[in-house]
Design brief:
CATH class: Alpha Beta
GO molecular function: dolichyl-phosphate beta-glucosyltransferase activity
CATH topology: Spore Coat Polysaccharide Biosynthesis Protein SpsA, Chain A
Structural class: alpha/beta
Pathway: Protein modification; protein glycosylation
Keywords: Endoplasmic reticulum, Glycosyltransferase, Membrane, Signal, Signal-anchor, Transferase, Transmembrane, Transmembrane helix
EC number: 2.4.1.117
Radius of gyration: 21 Å
Distance between the termini: 53 Å
CATH architecture: Alpha-Beta Complex
InterPro entries: DPG_synthase (IPR035518), Glyco_trans_2-like (IPR001173), Nucleotide-diphossugar_trans (IPR029044)
Strand order of the largest sheet: 5-4-3-6-8-7-9
Number of domains: 1
Amino acid sequence: MGFLWTILELSVALLLLLLCGLASAIVFEAYRRRHNNAHVEAPAIFEDPKSPKQVPCPYISDPAEKYLSLIIPAFNEEYRLPGALEETMNYLQKRAGKDKTFSYEVLIVDDGSRDATKRVAFEFVRRYGVDNVRVILLGRNHGKGEAIRKGMLHSRGELLLMLDADGATKVDDLEKLENQIRAVARKDYHHEDSAAGDSSFRISDIQIAAFGSRAHLEEKALATRKWYRNFLMKGFHLVVLLTAGPGVRDTQCGFKMFTRAAARKLFTNIRLKRWCFDVELVFLCKRFGIRIIEISVNWSEIPGSKVNPLSIPNMLWELALMSVGYRTGMWKIRP
């Protein structure tokens, strides 16, 4: 009986949080409109530790200059970032050595870190050059979603991959996402224009998003987690389903790849800055008709996660904010 009461109490708490989130979303948007508190873009500046000159900053609307961009958001990642970057750079250099047509860049977005993350990032710029490794400094903490948005908007790749600074997903798994994107792109491209030759085919021009997924690991996770964590997870998935709709089993995996055309649509429109920007990406993909592919990736839990039970109210608030913003038309979508 006590167990049932606990479930009932949690259900009521979840409902109250959602209602509070809806109310907060309405109040927040009203305040924003009244004070014309529109989002203001801070200029992105790439610094070269070897030169006093600023590096010209590209934009997502510019033509691609690299094949692959990797965007890594980092907030207080002094200890986890070096290992992940070493693994990433070793993979990229090895691949570039085998394929002379392969070009890449790594964008580290320092989200207002208070530790030595900036120093670690610039050390890799010194080692590999500012053409291959770049750092964007946000100055103060905005949130993971904003850090990724900023990196995406100022990248140069035909394909753009977001990945976490902890290295929880092995970087070579990007080939799974890349291969699926290319297969779907070629199929859709030739279906639309079967008379065109391969010479006119550009992967960057076709709108596709590939989401890395840990859904295949869910059964094992359910068996090892506490019952209340599973209950909260299921509750969160239910709210996500109601907010963004069905179709993606794992919205929160931090390993996602986009073609340049898809990234241009998505990241010039995305508004959530912290916990649930992944859910907003799903919502926007559906709104724009961008093809979503979900692909299983290897994943291991790395100590130091910044997600905790206190994150749940913030997640619900953001989902409520997104739902109210889009469904009432207060959040306008750029074509």
